Amino acid sequence: MSSQYKKINIPERKNIVLIAHDNKKRELLEWAVLHAKELAKHNLYATGTTGKLLERETGLEVTCFESGPLGGDMQAGAYIADGKLDLVLFFWDPLAAQPHDPDVRALLRVAVVWNVPLACNQSSADFLITSPYFSGKYIKTVTDFTVYKNRKSP
């Protein structure tokens, strides 16, 4: 099956989800406080605990999903699949076992499937936030899954 592509306009004001595993929450919070002025230009989403901490530490408004282990990662993934999130900042802890590891993998996978910028650590987040695309318009290319969606069932 040959892939067809389509262009998606990403506006200047982006929908950004911020997620952090327990051992990375402090790191994400410090990063968010440092970049609060830039983050304030966007619509922010987060998984439950992280979102509440972000609101408290930065004073920014954050729309909260459930906590990650309670389905928050899956909610973020659904938003990505629906085209409702433009960027993922996920301070992931690859050294700690996570009870919801399948959900984490699914979130990372869906971000890649839909060509959503994804930072899994502070260095990557630094690169993204300093990119002119972070607060500028951007046209991304994604696979057009229309043929896949319309295929006949076996």
From TrEMBL:
Please tell me which top-level EC class this enzyme sits in.
Answer: lyase
* PROSITE patterns, A to Z: METHYLGLYOXAL_SYNTH (PS01335), MGS (PS51855)
Q: Which GO terms describe its cellular component?
A: cytosol
A GO biological process held by the record: methylglyoxal biosynthetic process
Instruction: Locate the residues binding substrate.
Output: H21, K25, T47, G48, T49, T50, S67, G68, H100
Sorted alphabetically, which Pfam families does this protein's record hold? MGS
Q: Which residues act catalytically here?
A: D73
Per the UniProt entry, the Enzyme Commission number(s) are 4.2.3.3
Provide the alphabetized UniProt keywords.
Lyase
Keyword Lyase in the entry? The reply is yes
The family note in this entry says:
Belongs to the methylglyoxal synthase family.
Which purpose does this protein serve, as stated in its record? Catalyzes the formation of methylglyoxal from dihydroxyacetone phosphate.
This chain belongs to the protein called: Methylglyoxal synthase
What organism does the record attribute this protein to?
Answer: Fluviispira sanaruensis
